[in-house]
Write a structure and sequence with these properties.
- The protein has 148 residues and is α/β, with parallel strands linked by helices.
- The chain has one domain: 3-Layer(aba) Sandwich (Rossmann fold), CATH 3.40.50.2300.
- Helices cover 42% and strands 19% of the residues.
- Strand 3, helix 3 and strand 4 form a beta-alpha-beta unit.
- The two termini are 25 Å apart.
Amino acid sequence: MKAEKMSILVVDDEILIRDLLFDFLTTKGAEVHLAENGKKALEMIDQIEFQVALVDLKMPEIDGLVVTSALYRKKPQVPVIIMTAYPSMDSAIDSIRHGVFDYMVKPFKIAELYEIITKAIAEYQFRVNSGYSQARLGRAGGYQAKRQ
């Protein structure tokens, strides 16, 4: 994978997390788009292109699962990685039901996150190349690859 092709949306209400991810990912050659809340993220979905979204689970007003659902409706090929400082079995299950690619607990090791991002970029490329499309499976964001 060529790092200069990475484009990542980071959605988190904590400025320190946004700054950390921006600094780290730009040193890896990524183009990083920042949204400070769910509302801003929803505005950005139609305005920018990105291959992976890193989304905080708990944010004021619009939470990460609402952002995830909107993202998958508009860009089903983009993997979402949920980040949370408040992990629970319920939120992990809800995240899976929304079709997230991975679920990271804060504080996380940045090298582990980068490894997951790398896998998510590969998943994005697979989805684009395979004709991946949204499949309503009676879930908020369940998807499957559709071979054409």
